[in-house]
Write a sequence for this structure.
């Protein structure tokens, strides 16, 4: 006679364990501290501004001045695999000078990167970037950087968000 114990499905003994981090993984993604808390200023020209933020009281403005460019980067508190990412988004808009470009660079734990450039269109409206849709599904994200490509002038960023599935 077969015992009941032997008839238990495999998952009874090996329940799936989620190791994904939960909730918001970006520190100060809306810049509402009014400073660069959580971010590394990797360029020369970046400032917190209260000019028309996407939400709250502040956003960040990357701008060009005397050929120096603006850039900011955030190292995640904990690297996160693609399969653990529920959503990864940001909002960006041209500054007061019109349509402009923004380069996004995601770095993985093996130090390879995914990099692409977005264009605001010729207006000052906010646009959402679906960062997750650009990612390498086989890799683990460790940082994200926003910078102005050469020839760009004035770009705002707000509400950077990475939600974990845990
Ligand atoms: Ca904000």
């Amino acid at each position: 006679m077969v015992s009941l114990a032997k008839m238990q499905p495999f998952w009874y003994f090996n329940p799936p364990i989620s190791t994904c981090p939960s909730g918001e993984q970006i520190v100060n993604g809306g810049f509402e501290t009014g400073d660069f808390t959580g971010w590394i200023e990797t360029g020369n020209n970046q400032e917190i501004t209260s000019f028309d933020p996407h939400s709250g009281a502040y956003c960040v403005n990357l701008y060009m001045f005397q050929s120096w460019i603006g850039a900011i980067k955030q190292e995640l508190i904990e690297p996160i695999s693609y399969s653990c990412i529920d959503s990864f988004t940001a909002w960006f808009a041209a500054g007061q000078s019109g349509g402009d470009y923004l380069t996004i660079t995601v770095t993985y734990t093996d130090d390879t990167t995914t990099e692409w450039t977005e264009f605001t269109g010729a207006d000052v409206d906010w646009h959402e970037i679906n960062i997750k849709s650009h990612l390498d599904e086989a890799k683990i994200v460790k940082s994200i950087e926003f910078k102005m490509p050469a020839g760009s002038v004035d770009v705002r960023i707000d509400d950077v968000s990475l939600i974990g599935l845990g």
Observations:
- The chain has one domain: 30-165.
